[in-house]
Amino acid sequence: MKTSEFLSVLKQHQDKSLLFEYAPEKFVGANYHITEVKNITIDSVDCGAGTDFWKETIVQLWESPKEKGKRDYMSVYKALAILNKVDHIKPMVQDAEIKFEYSNEDFHTAQLFVDDYALDNQSLIVKLSVEKTDCKAKETCGVDPKAEVKEETSTCCSPESGCC
Prior knowledge:
- Helix content is about 15%, strand content about 40%.
- It is built from 3 helices and 7 strands; from the N terminus they run H-E-E-E-E-H-E-E-E-H.
């Protein structure tokens, strides 16, 4: 989801609570805070010597240990106010992909993308997902994208493949 799309969804549902589902039926605690918003520029070279360049917006979510028993979630209105304030200080790239950085004691730190969202009477639920790593140079490295890649026999980035 693009940053502009996410902000648009927030604008349409300001009267709701904002929940984040980081895995099926697992939610960021009601004690979360938006602790940082990052404008990230990726300028990369893949294992086939291909270059790429893109921007992302990363919103960091943190659960406050002092508010562990909190039951009321942040309102969409408050989250939108925070993001609007950030945008006035350091403008967000509206067509950049938005991701959420999160971890807790049972879930490793990850940057999660917005897979979908759902609504009920009280809440806007943002459904987050992990994005698996992938070889972007399959053709250059001779990897059949349809074949299952076995770690022992992968040719992408092996010394004899010529792509690394």
